[in-house]
Write a structure and sequence with these properties.
Layout (H helix, E strand, L loop, with lengths): L1 H23 L6 E5 L6 H17 L2 E5 L6 H13 L4 E4 L4 H13 L4 E4 L11 E3 L2 H16 L3 E7 L4 H14 L5 E8 L4 H11 L10 E4 L4 H11 L6 E5 L3 H9 L4 E4 L2 H17 L20 E3 L3 E3 L4 H13 L1
Parallel strand pairs: 1-2, 1-3, 3-4, 4-5, 5-11, 6-7, 6-8, 8-9, 9-10
Antiparallel strand pairs: 10-12
Length: about 325
């Protein structure tokens, strides 16, 4: 009987020790940074919500940093400031891969874990990328455009050339359109991070007629869709195709109204949530060597790419996404 009591006490002490050890793994002194551009967008509010959710679960400190508008230099400066604090880890969406790559490499050399999300810097020493397969996202949109256009028409893109994720989306569209020569890409308009530029150019282009008529407006980033939709609404241009990007509430409502045909949904919340969890795991089990090229290492401790998935949203399923957004806001 005494032996049984001894075993029970030992088991209780072991459980308490395990519980204490688990709690001690995390601390509010552990700081994790999410860094990006255009933080005013609903997309980044969603990513930050996921980042903060994981931080709350682990009892660590989360920071969101970056410019409210599109400013690659300001983003780089925020990244460098974060590195100077020697944080537990950084999750970054890269606006300018050439500019950000040396800064990422310097952070890794200082044994600060860096994961890219949403937009990658594939030639840097970042540990891996979490986000959308942007080539597939572009192909998904292109297949929709092909069907809705009946295989022919003039197409305009709104983008920010040079941003890796947007360039990959454009390439995905081109991959599909090149097999359909009657679909002509008239121009790729650089909105320079300002949705108002998309509004102004769409207004100009809508006036083209005859063989120069623009049949489809395709937005490769989140902000332009609503502004182009406003131009179409004001001019009652119901004969034009508009495909947007992402699922902010205004975009979803415009799909429900029939102004925007469809949009490509990503999972920024998942990117932020998983990103912090992965950084935390790496921080607590820090490899001795970060500079391995994990892409060609068959025994790598990390993947090269974690695909968080995409979906096409149109009138058939928009209510599902609206309900999900409303539920998320209520939490």
């Amino acid at each position: 009987m005494r032996n049984i009591r001894t075993l029970l006490v030992s088991a209780s002490l072991a459980s308490a020790l395990l519980a204490t050890t688990g709690c001690e793994r995390h601390s509010k002194n552990e700081s994790y940074y999410l860094i990006s551009n255009n933080l005013k967008l609903a997309y980044w509010q969603s990513a930050n919500a996921g980042f903060n959710k994981a931080a709350a679960q682990y009892g660590v400190t989360a920071h969101l940093r970056g410019p409210d508008d599109y400013n690659a230099q300001a983003e780089l400066e925020e990244f460098q400031k974060a590195v100077a604090t020697k944080p537990a880890g950084i999750l970054v969406s890269v606006a300018d891969a050439a500019a950000m790559t040396p800064a990422i490499d310097a952070a890794i050399a200082a044994h600060i874990p860096v994961i890219t999300m949403d937009s990658d810097a594939p030639n840097s020493h970042r540990l891996f990328f979490i986000g959308t397969n942007n080539l597939d996202a572009g192909r998904l949109g292109a297949q929709r455009a092909f069907r809705k256009l009946g295989g022919k028409g003039n197409v305009i893109f709104f983008s920010m050339p040079g941003q890796p994720n947007l360039d990959d989306r454009l390439k995905g569209y081109i991959d599909i359109f090149q097999d359909h020569p009657q679909i002509k890409i008239v121009d790729v308009i650089n909105i320079k991070g300002e949705a108002g530029n998309a509004f102004d150019r769409a207004k100009q282009l809508l006036g083209k007629t005859g063989p120069d008529k623009i049949d489809a407006f395709i937005c490769l980033e989140a902000s332009a869709g609503k502004d182009v939709a406003e131009v179409l609404k004001r001019n009652h241009a119901t004969d034009r195709l508009l495909i947007a990007m992402d699922v902010d509430p205004d975009t979803l409502q415009l799909i429900k109204e029939g102004v925007i045909d469809s949009t490509i949904a990503q999972k920024p919340y998942t990117m932020g949530y998983l990103g912090l969890k992965q950084l935390d795991e790496i921080h607590h089990y820090l490899p001795a060597q970060f500079r391995t090229d994990y892409g060609v290492d068959s025994f790598s401790p990390y993947p090269v790419f974690v695909d968080t998935g995409t979906a096409l949203v149109d009138k058939n399923n928009v209510d599902i996404f609206l309900s999900a957004a409303a539920e998320a806001q209520g939490k």
